[in-house]
Design goal:
Layout (H helix, E strand, L loop, with lengths): L3 H10 L2 E2 L2 E2 L5 E5 L3 E3 L4 E8 L6 E3 L1 H4 L4 E10 L6 E10 L3 E11 L6 E12 L24 H24 L15 H14 L8 H20 L8 H10 L5 H17 L9 H16 L2 H12 L2
Parallel strand pairs: 4-10
Antiparallel strand pairs: 1-2, 3-5, 5-8, 6-9, 7-8, 9-10
Helix pairs in contact: 4-5, 4-8, 5-7, 5-8, 6-7, 7-8
């Protein structure tokens, strides 16, 4: 009888009670680097401890911010029946400085979902390598050499080739350029934007895999539309600054979120060199049209529909 208290104490230390084993705690622990470069993808590993059979997924909408884009989430170990699971998350920092981030996880079925959070800190630095060669010095002083005659003969040919290339580039760009035409346009902002979007859709940029140019023109169309519609200096603002300005206009939650998703995908293609999925071009073009339609005053939209209905 004297050994009974010691046995009970040992069982309690091992996590057992009279009702059976204790339920494991639910948590997600992140392993992230201390620093990262602006616009460069970073891989973060997440180790999750949950009850077996419990669904667990990263809440992309809640975890994405103006300063952090999430490019990919991949489960690398464990399955839904396992209590321990491992994920790799590819994120891209979009603002400089020391940043505190927090990822949100949805745990359990949709009808009774719970939320877990896991914080991490990144020191976001300027891209390196811009000034590496400034301190290099010549081993010997420069020596003057007599130029041969043939470069002077090739100079007119080079000028002719440059002229031909420039004319070819201008002719090729007319099918999708949105800067043609008069700068002072008296038409409504939505009419100008719809015409520019239709010209971009009819161009061959996406089919020729010129995705960076495609997204550059698409975002320029939206920026100019916002300048005409609301008087914002949209063409001189970063994506994060423009999102903050849109939120002040009280457009609801849908439009700023739609704008943020479109511009973050565009930034991934233009700056982080992410290869877009085949359906991104069409879906983002339709998202831009939706933004134009939903920000057009209703009386103007109704008048435009009546005008189109006339024979």
């Amino acid at each position: 009888m004297s050994c009974l208290p010691a046995i009970l104490t040992l069982l309690a230390a091992c996590g057992w009670t009279a009702a059976g084993p204790a339920a494991p705690s639910e948590s997600v622990v992140l392993e992230a680097p201390a620093s990262a470069q602006l616009g460069e993808p970073v891989i973060i590993r997440a180790a999750a401890q949950v009850q077996p059979g419990t669904p667990l997924a990263l809440d992309l909408q809640s975890s994405t911010t103006d300063s952090l884009a999430i490019a990919q989430v991949q489960a690398v170990a464990g399955d839904p029946s396992s209590p321990k699971r491992l994920f790799e998350i590819t994120v891209i920092p979009l603002d400089l400085g020391r940043r505190d981030f927090r990822l949100f996880w949805t745990l359990g079925p949709a009808a009774a979902a719970r939320t877990l959070t896991s914080p991490f800190v990144l020191e976001v630095l300027d891209p390196a390598g811009a000034d590496k060669d400034q301190n290099l010095k010549d081993i010997k002083p420069p020596r003057r050499a007599r130029l041969p005659l043939w470069p002077w003969l090739l100079l007119p040919l080079a000028g002719l080739g440059l002229w031909y290339w420039n004319m070819r580039r201008r002719t090729r760009g007319r099918e999708f350029s949105v800067a043609d035409g008069p700068q002072d346009d008296d038409r409504p902002p939505e009419a100008i934007a719809e015409e520019e979007l239709s010209r971009l859709e009819a161009s061959s940029l996406w089919s020729e895999n010129r995705h960076k140019e495609y997204y550059g023109i698409l975002t320029d169309i939206i920026r100019r539309y916002l300048e005409r519609r609301y008087g914002l200096a949209a063409t001189r603002r970063t994506t994060a600054e423009l999102i903050r300005q849109l939120r002040r206009l009280e457009l609801g939650r849908t439009l700023p979120a739609l704008f943020r998703d479109l511009f973050e995908r565009a930034d991934l293609v233009k700056f982080a060199k992410v290869e877009p999925l085949p359906g991104w071009g069409k879906s983002d073009l339709e998202a831009a049209r939706q933004m134009v339609r939903e920000t057009t005053p209703r009386e103007l939209a109704g008048a435009a529909q009546l005008q189109e209905a006339k024979p």
